[in-house]
Design brief:
This protein has 309 residues and is α/β, with parallel strands linked by helices. The protein is 43% helix and 20% strand. Helix 4 packs parallel to helix 5. The longest helix has 23 residues. The protein starts with 5 loop residues before the first strand and ends in an 11-residue tail after the last strand.
């Protein structure tokens, strides 16, 4: 039984309790997967020590890297790593997300596991720029870990977009559902599908008084229910595990995840970057700020990362 084969874990540089490491070791044990622990470090002051020769600066940098490797080795003593194959990588890089993605590509890792953190004094989660970059640019699966534990016989919620007008949506739906099924099999969990659909625009009722809003909503709901049922049939997912709800995905998905007490939400990220990302954002980024469980981000087929190795 295997949902992943080669795991890359991004460690927190200043924490003794490592949520991502806990989750990754659990995944590795049930999947017989290989694990690589990585840390990206950088200190600009070392680069600016112009009084030292390049060789001396390199020696100082290597010393820092070795110190962090020792720290990771000591950290592992608090974990059960018996029978697991674990590698350690510490990289000197001024852009952590690039170091992570480059390591994932070179090591042929099929998943990146990274922890998220609650903001002190607030209920919501704060995501670092590295989190956003990984969601948008990492070609592999990205698992962002929260505090919610993974109970046995829990629920995995796959968020898909039915009645899409392109093969792109259909292909991504398949990849999302396959990933959800794979993790559910490993975790002895149940897969649920959710599809959010938009309601009737408010302006229509105002501009066209004879417009039947109720009938419009009913037709739209039926279309989405039929499309979701057709998709679910391919994966043997029961009708009781199919959820079609009116509203925006960033509202519907977190609400249903909480109702189901889901351990994992799986959704697709299109990898939008640049100006369009600043204007529109990605559904995954809106959703992940509100869900209380882990999120697994899946890229479309043929996705190419902008990070050059």
């Amino acid at each position: 039984m295997s949902c992943v084969k080669n795991i890359l874990v991004v460690l927190d540089p200043d924490k003794q309790q490592q949520k991502a490491l806990n989750r990754a070791l659990h995944l590795a044990r049930i999947s017989q997967a290989r694990v690589t622990l990585m840390l990206s470090i950088y200190d600009f002051s070392y680069e600016m020590t112009t009084m030292l020769a390049a060789e001396e600066r390199n020696t100082m940098r290597d010393s820092l890297i070795n110190d962090r490797k020792v720290w990771i080795t000591d950290l592992l003593e608090d974990y059960n790593t018996r029978d697991l194959q674990i590698d350690i990588k510490v990289l000197w890089h001024n852009r952590p997300y690039e170091a992570i993605i480059e390591t994932a590509i070179k090591g042929e890792h099929d998943i990146i596991v990274k922890a998220t953190h609650p903001h002190e004094g607030l209920a919501h989660i704060i995501f670092t720029p590295t989190d956003w970059h990984l969601l948008r640019k990492a070609p592999s699966l990205v698992l962002l870990v929260k505090e919610h534990e993974w109970p046995e016989h829990g629920k995995v919620l796959a968020a898909i977009h039915t009645t899409g007008e392109s093969e792109h949506h259909d292909s991504l739906n398949v990849r999302i559902t396959e990933a959800a099924k794979g993790f559910a099999k490993c975790l002895h969990s149940e897969v649920h599908l959710v599809n959010a659909y938009p309601g009737a625009p408010v302006t229509i009722a105002a501009e066209i008084p004879e417009f039947d809003t109720a009938n419009y909503r009913e037709v739209i709901a039926e279309n989405h229910q039929h499309a979701l049922a057709e998709h679910a049939k391919k994966f043997d997912i029961e009708a009781t595990q199919q959820h079609v709800r009116e509203g925006l995905p960033e509202q519907v998905i977190p609400e249903l995840a909480e109702e189901l007490d889901a351990e994992l939400v799986v959704l697709g990220t299109i990898g939008r970057t640049g100006f369009s990302a600043a204007l529109l954002g990605n559904t995954a980024e809106h959703v992940i700020e509100q869900i209380n469980c882990d999120l697994l981000a899946v890229k479309p087929a043929g996705f190419e990362t902008p990070v050059k190795v």
